[in-house]
């Protein structure tokens, strides 16, 4: 909380450590078959992480930054850009499941996964929150859905309601093999040059598995032992110590730079997605 008692999202940015949960969150979002197949079958090659990994990273981060830190004009511009990309993302006659990128139910699930990711990374790398901050972060993160097609009244009213929604959503989690293979390629960083995978691949797999709730790990066939958990907890303690030493302006610097880049693109009429 800020000094005036109002929730301030800037107090809850863990800094660069937050990137460690990125792949886990992608896996969570694609846990609903409709979302997973929508990504795997998508004909929008410009958003394909396996073909354009750096562009996909930029656009994903840009969306999070705009949704959480942008003003209404930023969010409207990004919504329009995402909508243009989503037009072609819909199931065909041979698709295993029916889906549309404009389905607010699917967008709500993606937003819910993003919230869980933001919450879990904040807890991991900055430490526990007060109940007031937990409530404040939850309410604030409704922007992750309303920045697209999710009506404000569709966001579960409070954390208790979200818990029920989340439990129901977990019951739908399933990874068909093509979706699982796509996600394992992301976990193993197969989309980046081989020389860049050295050291990064093992860390990415470790952090990704750590951040996945058990239901997702099981569905993906990823193992996690008690020894892994102890190693992760030691790792988190070290990273948390470093993150908490950073002044807020340093932790916010990547956010400010990314938001400035988005606004430059809007002014110049450059493509956002």
Q: Quick summary of this structure?
A:
With 273 residues, the protein is mainly α.
Describe the 3D structure:
- The chain is mainly alpha-helical.
- 63% of the residues lie in helices and 0% in strands.
- The protein is built from 14 helices and no strands.
- The chain has helices at 22-29, 33-40, 53-69, 72-86, 104-126, 131-140, 143-146, 159-170, 177-187, 194-197, 200-211, 214-220, 226-245, 248-268.
- The chain starts with 21 loop residues before the first helix and ends in a 5-residue tail after the last helix.
- The model has no long low-confidence stretch (mean pLDDT 94).
Judging from the principal axes of the Cα atoms, what is the shape? globular
Helical stretch tally: 14
Average of pLDDT: 94
The low-pLDDT segments are: none
Subunit organisation of the chains: single chain
The arrangement of helices and strands along the chain is HHHHHHHHHHHHHH
**Amount of beta strand:** under 5%
Q: Structural class, please?
A: mainly alpha
Q: How widely separated are the two ends?
A: 33 Å
The residue fraction in helices comes out at 55-70%
Quantity of strands, as a count: 0
Q: Kindly provide the radius of gyration, computed on alpha-carbon positions and rounded to a whole number of angstroms.
A: 18 Å
Profile the largest sheet: none
């Amino acid at each position: 909380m800020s000094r005036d008692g109002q929730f301030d999202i800037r107090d809850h940015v863990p800094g660069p450590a937050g990137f460690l949960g990125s792949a886990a969150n992608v896996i969570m979002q694609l846990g609903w078959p409709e979302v997973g197949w929508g990504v795997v079958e998508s004909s929008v090659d410009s958003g394909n992480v396996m073909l354009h990994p750096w562009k996909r990273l930029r656009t994903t981060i840009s969306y999070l930054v705009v949704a959480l830190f942008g003003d209404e004009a930023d969010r409207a511009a990004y919504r329009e850009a995402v909508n243009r990309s989503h037009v072609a993302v819909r199931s065909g006659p041979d698709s295993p499941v029916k889906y549309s990128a404009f389905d607010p139910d699917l967008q709500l699930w993606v937003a819910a996964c993003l919230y869980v990711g933001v919450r879990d990374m904040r807890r991991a790398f900055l430490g526990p929150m007060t109940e007031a901050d937990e409530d404040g972060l939850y309410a604030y993160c409704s922007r992750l859905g309303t920045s697209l097609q999710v009506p404000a009244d569709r966001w579960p009213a409070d954390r208790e309601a979200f818990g029920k929604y989340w439990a129901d959503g977990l019951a739908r989690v399933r990874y068909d093999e093509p979706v699982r293979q796509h996600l394992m390629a992301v976990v193993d960083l197969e989309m980046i040059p081989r020389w860049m995978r050295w050291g990064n691949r093992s860390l990415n797999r470790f952090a990704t598995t750590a951040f996945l709730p058990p239901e997702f790990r099981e569905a993906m066939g990823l193992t996690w032992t008690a020894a892994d958990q102890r190693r992760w907890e030691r790792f988190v303690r070290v990273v948390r110590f470093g993150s908490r030493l950073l002044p807020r302006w340093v932790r916010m610097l990547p956010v400010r730079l990314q938001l400035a880049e988005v606004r430059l693109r809007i002014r110049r009429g450059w493509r956002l997605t």
